[in-house]
Amino acid sequence: MNQFTVNSGTLYVVSTPIGNLFDITQRAIDVLSQVDVIACEDTRHTNKLLTAFNIKNKTMSLHDHNERQRQEQIANMLQQGQSIALVSDAGTPLISDPGFHIVRHLRRENLAVVPVPGACAAIAALSVSGLATDRFSFEGFLPSKSTARQSVLAKLAEESRTMVFYDAPRRAIDTVADIVSQLGGARQIVIARELTKTFETVHADSAENVLAWLQQDANQLKGEMVLIIEGKPRDPDAIPPEAIATLKLLVAEMKPKKACAIAAEIHGVKKNALYQFALDMK
Ligand code: SAM
User: Fold this and answer.
1) CA-CA distance, 196 to 121, in Å (whole number)?
2) CATH number of domain containing 24
3) What is the average pLDDT across 137-149?
4) Cα(121) to centroid(ligand 1), Å
5) Smallest Cα–Cα separation from 191: which of 131, 120, 132?
6) Is residue 132 located within the same domain as residue 204?
7) Which terminus of the chain, N or C, has fewer Cβ atoms within 10 Å?
8) Pocket lining: 126 vs ligand 1, CB cutoff 6 Å
């Protein structure tokens, strides 16, 4: 297999490991070795990664505070034919990490931006959570203050998709207590802590049981964690709003029985449930 060769005038968005260094990809190593410069959140942190892979290359800082200033500079460097890698301290850049402003700017300037995919804590946690993965929402970091956190959680109480959050384990007891108060103690949650590292722990249970578990074991309040909350379970007898909208239109034009049969066919809903709804509507 040949080494991957970088193109000039291209920004490579390179994922790096979230713990276990073996999770770096060969393509990431090739790109980091060949680009003209590596833009990184913390040059000292990235230099440790480069040293581990025996990569000798130039770095430049790119973090939340200088990202907007850097975007013109990076665009100019690419226009002059340089190739650049963008990395964050760990995982996939832009995912709760810097890079969004740069990538948006370069896309608007029609410059080449290429992903070099790899580790991402949210996706790693989701993949082993045992919660539904067909539809999910990534919610980033929860607020550190309880009032703001409760308000975010309250707004998500009806969300039916699996929800993925980043949070600090030292706040885990307070966060899970807020989940119990806002979403109920029966809601299933998963704590995925220290993924790919020595003390990797994935614990799934109801919110109230997870709260008790955290309160008994101070070790669970260390390191880094992803928190996943099961979406609100759907009531199998609930009639979807689209079916109700269709039913209302049809009922104005035809007998309720026929309207229900058509709406049930279109939306895959039980005819009897719709008929009962149509009767209640009168
Ligand atoms: N861009 C990164 C990614 O792709 O996962 C995320 C960066 S964000 C600043 C850092 C947060 O990601 C941590 O606070 C934690 O919530 C989560 N995280 C990172 N590494 C982790 C790990 N090894 N285990 C569990 N969570 C992790």
Assistant:
1) 9
2) 3.40.1010.10
3) 97
4) 5
5) 131
6) yes
7) N
8) no
Enclosing H/E stretch for 17? none
Its pTM stands at 0.87
- Give residue 269 CA to ligand 1 midpoint distance, Å: 41
Based on the domain organization, do 114 and 194 belong to the same domain? no
Cα separation, 210 vs 233, in Å, equals 19
How many Cβ atoms sit within 10 Å of the Cβ of residue 191? Answer: 24
- Ligand 1 centre from 239 Cα, in Å? 38
> Are the CB atoms for 68 and 105 separated by under 8 Å?
no
Q: What is the mean pLDDT of residues 57-61?
A: 97
The number of domains in the chain is: 3
Identify the domain boundary among 72, 87, 119.
119
- Report the nearest atom of ligand 1 relative to the CA of 200: 24
Residue 5 lies in a domain: no
Coil/strand/helix, residue 117: coil
pLDDT band at 271 (very low <50, low <70, confident <90, very high): confident
Final residue before a domain boundary, out of 119, 141, 158: 119
What range defines the domain where residue 93 resides?
A: 10-119
Any domain includes 235: no
